[in-house]
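In the design runs reported in the main text, the only information available to the sequence generator was the tokenized backbone. The following block is the verbatim input for one such run; it is reproduced so that readers can re-run the procedure and compare outputs position by position.
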């Protein structure tokens, strides 16, 4: 994976963000999303008593596992959501069929200029009804012209 210079710093979108220090070309793999790989049940148990607040370092890896970047996470956990992203999360399945070894990489979907913040669509899907309260909790502050106002994805 090519090493691209990226840096975390305060973001105008939310909290910390990740910014390009040099030109990143469309299609380039920028960083792997790292953290402790846990089962969904382990994550549910660990965070059951914490009220949802729209801030998460959990990345669903597959049907069985979640990457918990609260534990051993790297700079990728600071990449913010946007309704008009310049990156995407690409999941890579383990070739030996071991789902706990699957990986997630952040790749550029267009050229990203030095100083530009890296963003991707979190694609958050909730089973429950998208109430006004949940939409507020998962509110989007990306500032895109066509911002949906929420990180929640439409129900299918």
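Verbatim output:
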């Amino acid at each position: 994976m090519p090493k691209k210079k990226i840096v975390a710093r305060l973001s105008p979108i939310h909290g910390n963000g990740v910014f390009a220090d040099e030109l990143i070309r469309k299609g380039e793999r920028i960083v792997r999303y790292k953290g402790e790989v846990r089962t969904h049940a382990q994550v549910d148990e660990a965070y059951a008593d914490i009220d949802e607040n729209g801030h998460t370092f959990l990345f669903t890896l597959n049907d069985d596992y979640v990457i918990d970047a609260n534990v051993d996470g790297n700079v990728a956990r600071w990449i913010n959501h946007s309704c008009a992203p310049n990156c995407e999360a690409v999941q890579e399945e383990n070739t030996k069929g071991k789902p706990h070894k699957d990986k997630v990489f952040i790749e550029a979907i267009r050229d990203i200029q030095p100083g530009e913040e890296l963003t991707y669509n979190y694609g958050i899907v909730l089973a429950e009804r998208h109430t006004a309260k949940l939409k507020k909790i998962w509110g989007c502050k990306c500032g895109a012209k066509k911002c949906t106002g929420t990180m929640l994805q439409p129900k299918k």
